[in-house]
Each structure stands twice: as structure tokens, then as C-alpha cells.
Amino acid sequence: MNHIRLVWSCIWNVLSEFFVSVGLSENLSVAIFVMDSLRQLVMKFLEREELANYNFQNEFLKPFVVIMQKSNSSEICELIVRCVSQMVLSCVNHVKSGWKSVFMVFTTAVADDRSLHCLLTIYTWKKCTLRKKREELQKLEKEKQAELRSYKSLMVYEKMTFNKKIASANKSLQELEDDFM
To answer: TM spans, by residue (predicted)?
Structure first.
């Protein structure tokens, strides 16, 4: 994982073809195993921040798209939807260019006549949007609290400044009274 991302890009070209060919295997056990391995590997990449002008996330998620579109196995398609759902829900703030592949998987799942894929996709999408809305509301609440603290600090400062002016004015009045007496 510590290799330069350009090196990973070259390695990934070879690995992605392997994942696709094995993921489309007739042997269901092997295909499920390779999908789980692919999920684990992609999760590692999604946890890392994507650099600007790079589409590594999209590239790493493409095998899921290809297998989803070409597979005849409903078990593999369901597993892909579940894998992508788990990845998106756990790393929703880190996904950048990977959204393209995520939407392609979800679009393929919704177009499928198997209702479970469609339900999983809708459930994941609702959960993502709710999580994003909740995060936005929390962010707004924090900003509101910070603004309120700033306003209170400003009010305290103004009050202290005003009280100092009054105190200095009173002191000079006191001095004037002392001078008169």
C-alpha cells in the first residue's frame, strides 16, 4: 500500500483483469472468495485520500462494475451490491472519483429484474443521503455554536470596554470632586 500510486496503477491494470476473469468464474466459491478479496483491497484504497486529478478510486472499483454487468449469477451480483454498499457506507467521506463506478453498479442493480438487488441499492442510497444530511446538520450546528460563542465573546469584550470607559470617567470625576473639596 505504500508504493507510489503510479506504480499501483500499472499493477492494477494486471490485477483488475485477473479479478474480473476469476469473478466471472463458474465456480461460485472461487468467485465469492475473489469478490471478498477485491472488497478488502479496495477498502484499503478508499481509506486513503485520493489525490487531485487522479481517478484511482474509479479504476479500483471498475472490476465490480464489469462483473456486475457480465455475471449471470444472482449470488455474485447480490454480493457485489452488498460489498459496494458496505464500502460506500463506511468510507462515504473518502469517496471521490469512485462515485462513477458506484453509480454504475447501482444502476445495473436497479435495472436487474431481481428485486433484492434493487432494494439493497435503494436502502444503501437512502442511508448514504441520510448520513450526509446528518453530517451537514452537525456541521451547521457546530458553525452556529462557534458563531454564537464569537458573538458572546464580542459582547463581553464590548461590555468590558464600556465599563472601563465608565470607570475611567468616574475616576476622573472622583478626582475632580477631591480637587474641589
So the answer is: 6-34
